[in-house]
Structure formats: structure tokens, C-alpha cells
């Protein structure tokens, strides 16, 4: 193959493995990825708990890979979209883990739920739910922001989209937590429990699938999926896989960013004065929040033929991990990248939603929910004070929070 800049062998030197849970649970990942971007931005790790893999850590290289979906496959048949091995006991194909043309047809079915007109329809209800929840918070008394705000708002949104039984909406967060729990997926003690919980999700959605299939087309997203040409003949596992994608995307991205907002404003308090002085910064603040938080740390691709990334030879079938958290701290793109800065002029260049054909289908809805939450907090002159460091999720996938105890005051 012409144009390859390195020998056709993997490097033999010790690799820096960035999959260790402690890096994320302790919030130490930014310094490790800064070293990778500086010293070896396309880095081969020959041994890890997840097997050999390439780390792609710079913004430009990740955008390059994302722009070539025919060369870097997302398909679950090649291993899927995360560094975690496919579980042979739980096969739940989803359209984000498919290549064209299957991906295109299924995405086209789901995307109208997140169109500009759909978001306009949702906006008033989102604002009403957010306002009611903020007004219910105890002033001056400790509470968990993750539970009371981040989880509740996101599960309410998903239950509305799916026409999911309201009294069971917290199951959506539980399922998302277990689906994204890599430690449980590989732990002999927890793997079976994770499988049982995910099977409960499959069974629950299977019942909804049967009910909606027999009741005719309705405006909720589940019904539209079931009665579409692209998804009407899916096997139950495929249907549940696509729902799991929407559940994880709809909870993890927004939920972790909602808690990240509290953490960011506490660590960089000068931004609150800027927002109080200029409400026009709220839109940009949301983009900057998503960049700074990067709620999902990585996506994985599999090379379909020998190729090159950043001068490194990538062999066919190699596992290529795109570290969005690193790209969003790339100093070549974002000046003083570790800072949260609501005035950052290029905040929208973040890659937290991916890039290209697999860009998050619900990105605009996530932004809308965050915009409304921040605006309603400002409307109430609400200050949120963390009482201690957040309890973070120890995972190389979901970059988020398990708990954040806070108190609030109102001016």
C-alpha cells in the first residue's frame, strides 16, 4: 500500500493504556490525554483488558476517521462502537452500530423526532417541567443534584418521547446505568446481574413493542419506529437495541452535562457573572459545557482495510478508539482547553456528538434541555454550591457523575 509512513508492524514498546477505570473515577484523564496528544497522538496499546487497540486523540485525526465510514466501520458485526467486547449473551444491534445502507434507513426513521419543528413542539413542555422541578428544590438543604435534577429531567424527557409509562420512567436511567457499566460487563461477580437487568429491559420493551404494533400508528417515537418501513420487520433484539441506543443517548449525554454544569460553574465561577450580565451567552455556554464535559468519552471503529492515521499504519480489523474527551481538550483547536469559558469563540467545534454520518441524532434536543435548564436557573438567580467533589463514574465510556451533593440559594 503506497503512502504509508511506518513499517507494517505494530510497535513493540510498552503502551499507555487509557482504559483504566481509576483515570475516570478520579478525574485524572485530562493529564494523560495531554501527554498522548503531545507525544504519540495515534498510539497503539498492544495489551489491555479490552485487547489491543489504537488510541486516536487529536481533533483533526478523529474528524478524519469519522469522515471515512466505509474505511472505519461502526458495525456490530465488526465489534461495534465501544472498546468493550460484544457480549455473546446479549446481542442488541442498533443503528449507530451499523454501516450504510442499514444505518441510513433507520436513522431516517428516528430523526424526525428531533427536527426543528419537533423541538419547537417540545420546548414549552420542557420549560414547564424544568421550572416546576427547580421550584420544588429545598433552599439551604443538602440534596443530590444528579438524582433530583439530572436524572429526573432526562427520564421525564425520554418518557414523553416514548410515551413510556410515567410511573416507571426511572427504569430508563437504571437500564442506561447498567448498559454503560463496563466494570459490571467484565466482572465475574456482576456480569450476570447486568445481563439479567438488560434482559428485563428487553422484556419490558418487547411488551411495549407488541402493544404498539397492534394498536396502529401513534405520534410517539416507539410507534413511529414500529410502523416504519425501515424498522417494522426488526427482530425484537434489534428493536430493543435501537431503543437502548436512544435510552443511553437520551440519559447519559444530557444527564452528565446537567451535572457538569454545576461542577463547571463551581470550578470556574467567573462564568456565572458573565452569564448574569449577558443572557446572550447562554447558547454558547451550552456548547462550551458539552465540549468541557464530553459526556461520552469515546467511540470505537474497526478498520476494513490497511490504512493510515497520522502516519501510523492501521491494519485491517484493528480496533480504533476515538477519544472525544481528548479531542475536545486539543490545544491545537481550543486555547486553554481545560478551562470552562462561556465566551469561547469556537466552542461549537467540539466533537462530543461525533462527526459525519454518525453524529448524535438527538444533539439538538440535548442542547435545548441544557439551554432551558441554565436559563431557568438564571431566571431564579439560583446559585448551586457543591458540598464536596462529585462522585464520578469510573468508566472509560460514560464520562459522568453518580452523585453530587449540593445546596442552593436564591438571590
Subunit arrangement of the protein: single chain
Write down the Rg: 21 Å
Can you give the helix content as a percent range?
Answer: 40-55%
Ends distance: 66 Å
- Coarse shape: globular
Low-confidence stretches: 1-14
Q: Which class best fits the helix and strand makeup?
A: alpha+beta
Return the string of H and E elements.
HHEEHEHHEHHHHHHHHEEEEHHEEEE
Strand order of the largest sheet: 1-2-8-5-3
Secondary structure: number of strands? 12
- As a percent range, the share of strand residues is 5-15%
Sheet with the most strands? 5 strands, mixed
Number of helices: 15
What's the pLDDT, averaged over the residues? 90
Structure notes:
Helix content is 46%, strand content 11%. The chain is of the alpha+beta class and 411 residues long. The protein has a 5-stranded mixed β-sheet with strand order 1-2-8-5-3. A 3-stranded antiparallel β-sheet has the order 4-12-9. It is built from 15 helices and 12 strands. A hairpin with a 2-residue loop joins strand 6 and strand 7. It is globular and about 60 Å long.
Amino acid at each position: 500500500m503506497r503512502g504509508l509512513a511506518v513499517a507494517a508492524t505494530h510497535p513493540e514498546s510498552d503502551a499507555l493504556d487509557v482504559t483504566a477505570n481509576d483515570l475516570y473515577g478520579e478525574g485524572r484523564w485530562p493529564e494523560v490525554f495531554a501527554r498522548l496528544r503531545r507525544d504519540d497522538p495515534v498510539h497503539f496499546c498492544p495489551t489491555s483488558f479490552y485487547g489491543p487497540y489504537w488510541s486516536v486523540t487529536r481533533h483533526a485525526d478523529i474528524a478524519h476517521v469519522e469522515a471515512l465510514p466505509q474505511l472505519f466501520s461502526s458495525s456490530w458485526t465488526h465489534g461495534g462502537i465501544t472498546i468493550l467486547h460484544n457480549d455473546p449473551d446479549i446481542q442488541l444491534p442498533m443503528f449507530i452500530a451499523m454501516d450504510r445502507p442499514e444505518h441510513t434507513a433507520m436513522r431516517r426513521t428516528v430523526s424526525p423526532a428531533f427536527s426543528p419543528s419537533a423541538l419547537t413542539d417540545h420546548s414549552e413542555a420542557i420549560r414547564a417541567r424544568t421550572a416546576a422541578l427547580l421550584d420544588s428544590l429545598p433552599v439551604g438543604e443538602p440534596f443530590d443534584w444528579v438524582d433530583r435534577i439530572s436524572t429526573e429531567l432526562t427520564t421525564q424527557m425520554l418518557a414523553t418521547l416514548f410515551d413510556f409509562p410515567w410511573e416507571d420512567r426511572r427504569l430508563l436511567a437504571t437500564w442506561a446505568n447498567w448498559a454503560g457499566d463496563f466494570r459490571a460487563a467484565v466482572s465475574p461477580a456482576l456480569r450476570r446481574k447486568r445481563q439479567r437487568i438488560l434482559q428485563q429491559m428487553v422484556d419490558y420493551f418487547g411488551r411495549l413493542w407488541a402493544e404498539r404494533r397492534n394498536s396502529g400508528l401513534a405520534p410517539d417515537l416507539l410507534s413511529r419506529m414500529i410502523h416504519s418501513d425501515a424498522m417494522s420487520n426488526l427482530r425484537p433484539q434489534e428493536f430493543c437495541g435501537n431503543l437502548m441506543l436512544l435510552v443511553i443517548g437520551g440519559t447519559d449525554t444530557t444527564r452528565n452535562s446537567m451535572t457538569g454544569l454545576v461542577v463547571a460553574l463551581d470550578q470556574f465561577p467567573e462564568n456565572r457573572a458573565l452569564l448574569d450580565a449577558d443572557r446572550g451567552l447562554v447558547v454558547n455556554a451550552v456548547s462550551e459545557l458539552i465540549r468541557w464535559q464530553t459526556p461520552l468519552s469515546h467511540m470505537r471503529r474497526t478498520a476494513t482495510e490497511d490504512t493510515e492515521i497520522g502516519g501510523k499504519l492501521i491494519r485491517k480489523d484493528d480496533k480504533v478508539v476515538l477519544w472525544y474527551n481528548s479531542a475536545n481538550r486539543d490545544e491545537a483547536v481550543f486555547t486553554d482547553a481545560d478551562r470552562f469559558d462561556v465566551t469561547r469563540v469556537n466552542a461549537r467545534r467540539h466533537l462530543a456528538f461525533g462527526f459525519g454520518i454518525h453524529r448524535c441524532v438527538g444533539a439538538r434536543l440535548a442542547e435545548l434541555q441544557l439551554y432551558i435548564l441554565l436559563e431557568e436557573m438564571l431566571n431564579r438567580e439560583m446559585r448551586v454550591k457543591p458540598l464536596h467533589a462529585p462522585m464520578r463514574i469510573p468508566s472509560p465510556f460514560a464520562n459522568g457523575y453518580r452523585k453530587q451533593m449540593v445546596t442552593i440559594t436564591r438571590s
